[in-house]
Amino acid sequence: MLIHYVTVTCPACGESFEVAAPPLVELPADLDYDCEICCRPMVIHVDGDETGVWAEASGPDD
Question: Which domain holds residue 50?
Fold first, then answer.
């Protein structure tokens, strides 16, 4: 199984980091995640197709 990594930017601190994306068959998906830099909560929306995987992070109340 191919593991895709996506880069997300924390909406709270603005720092970027990579997370492993779910398999394509499970996309689209929303992941509850804590920033690896500032530890604040966020929701990462992950989507993709045969050409690639992409993600966008937002605050839990956005």
Answer: 5-58
